[in-house]
Amino acid sequence: MTDPISDITAWLTDGARSRPEPSDMMAECCERLIAAGLPLWRVGVFVRTLHPEIFGRNFIWRPTTGVELGSVDFDIQHTPEFLRSPLAIVFQEGAEVRCRLDAPGNNRFPFFDDMRAEGVTDYVAVPLSFVDGMIHASSWTTRQQGGFTDAQLTDLKRVVPPLTRLIEVIGLRRTAETLLDTYVGPRAGERILAGQIRRGHTETMHAAIWLSDLRGFTALSDRLPPEQVVEILNLYFDCQVAAIHKHGGEVLKFMGDGLLAVFPIEADEQALCSRVLEAAREARAAVAAMQFVSGETPERFRFGVALHVGRLLYGNIGGGNRLDFTCIGPAVNLAARLEKIAGRLGRTIVASGAFVGTCAADWDNLGEFPIAGFSRAEQVYGLSDETPRE
Questions:
Q1: Where are the domains of the chain?
Q2: How far is CA 230 from CA 139, 240, 251, 301, in A?
Q3: Which of 7, 121, 262, 335 could form a disulfide with 102 if both were Cys (CB 3.0 to 4.6 A apart)?
């Protein structure tokens, strides 16, 4: 006679290939368990992540709604709701927690009030122990009168080990994607995961280039403690990164107080350059509004950004097994020279003739400037709404 639980564990062990997406896998796993006789109601999987802003992700399944995805930030660890929840015990002690919610006087966890309102009679939280020793959690509930039977709990726990291993594999893949997105950007990360990891693996890209830096950063670094300088840099980069991402750009590199971003041009060059300029305007306003109090007088900040359009080489550059996924080429060098000219002219936003030729705006011709390393001078433009500052 076929054992349906064995079929489910074999399906999980084989990678749940019929449902490769994590949420789909969880939904099918729960549906298979119900078909095998487990009277499940609400099932949750809670996985901690390696992410600069997100503490963990959760997958909540109900037969009426399917899988709902969510995430929580690091502050959740210190909230009364988490500290007084059964999952806190699972995470901190790696221990299983079971509570019969239909038992009188069982008010150990405030969370159970919500479960009772859904008709839940039994709750069990089971740790998911990864190979590296990190503890994650799962929770299983039923509305069956009398709660789970011993046989049902035994079947449930047979499924947990292969489910844990599969979640770990999926989690490792997601962690790799998250780290690559965080440190090299989503487009570069996608290429690296696809196998573009050898030195010399490059491609040509036609893109709008953004190169910026913070005015007076050297004097600021000399005057303030390093911890405050780092805090200021993070606030300053926040003013730009959100605008860059919003308008389709990708941040490639932070270089001290400098930022290099690209906006790949795949279709309408004029529309994309207009979005780049809008991102620059938004960043300009955000930096102008930025304040940092380091004494009695708040610090105020200015920055400069150069915009250019050109072809660049995008890929792996480095030495031995230490590589950087970045972009190089005359177009990047020209953007860097233009940013220095912006500083000399007291301008926030400057652009090359190539950028201005595809981006309709109120531009002022600031003159022709010799560019170090280039054979000919470059016409430089600034926005008419800016007043040069010393």
A1: 4-183, 186-383
A2: 40, 16, 18, 14
A3: 121
The answer on pLDDT for 106 being more than 80 is no
The class of domain 4-183 in CATH terms is alpha beta
CATH 3.30.70.1230 is right for the domain spanning 186-383: yes
Asked whether residue 379 carries a pLDDT value surpassing 80, the answer given is: yes
pTM of the model: 0.75
Residue 266 identity (one-letter amino acid):
E
Angle, nearest 10°, between helix axes 226-246 and 269-289?
150
